[in-house]
Design goal:
- The protein has 200 residues and is of the alpha/beta class.
- Strand 1, helix 2 and strand 2 form a beta-alpha-beta unit.
- The protein is globular and about 45 Å long.
Length: 200
């Protein structure tokens, strides 16, 4: 079940909801899905915003070891709500902004909501497998013609900033229009201090 499959699901969801041609925003793996959606189903995407994402090109810098370790740390057992919350907090603290660390009480509340909404321990590993199995998606990204904004943080330890630059460049190489915005102090997260600038 790869990024292509998820892009097809998204196209079907757009049709089922009667959205026509929406503005699509995706972060991390969601950015990859958005890229494939825009490349494979151009009639369904008005604009694309790809955040902290990548084309999957093998020559790009790899994730920092601490970020990979955090993602691949064993999940809490099903039913261990407190363990799952603590693990998610640890992951976000490691992959997120170091210049703008999150308020831990706010982070805990967000993680608690996330875990209580849906917790499926195998899900995270399936996501990583989907990304790995999808490999280099440069060809489909090169087909993107929707006006695209690529947002990336200069402190992202998981998907390195070069991946954002490569995404924008790949779209331009195919004749598309892509603008790159690198945010100083942003990691693989949305730091509260930077949200007004990112939203703008």
């Amino acid at each position: 079940y790869r990024i292509d499959d998820m892009a097809r699901d998204t196209a079907a969801l757009i049709d089922a909801l009667g959205l026509g041609r929406p503005h699509v925003v995706g972060a991390s793996m969601g950015g990859m899905i958005g890229q494939n959606l825009a490349g494979q189903f151009p009639e369904k995407v008005a604009t694309l915003t790809s955040i902290m994402s990548t084309t999957g090109k093998r020559s790009l810098p790899k994730a920092q070891w601490r970020a990979l370790q955090a993602l691949m740390s064993p999940p809490a057992k099903r039913g261990d709500v407190e363990g799952a919350i603590r693990r998610l907090m640890r992951v976000i603290n490691l992959i997120g902004s170091q210049s703008h660390p999150p308020d831990q009480a706010v982070l805990r509340q967000m993680c608690e909501q996330h875990i209580l909404r849906s917790y499926h321990p195998a899900g995270g590993m399936r996501q990583l497998s989907a990304v790995a199995a999808s490999d280099d998606r440069s060809e489909v990204v090169r087909r993107i013609k929707a006006p695209t904004l690529v947002i990336h943080g200069d402190e992202d330890p998981l998907v390195r900033p070069a991946a954002g630059a490569d995404t924008a460049q790949t779209i331009r190489e195919g004749g598309g229009e892509a603008r790159l915005a690198i945010f100083k102090g942003m990691g693989h997260d949305f730091p509260a201090a930077l949200i007004p600038q990112i939203a703008e």
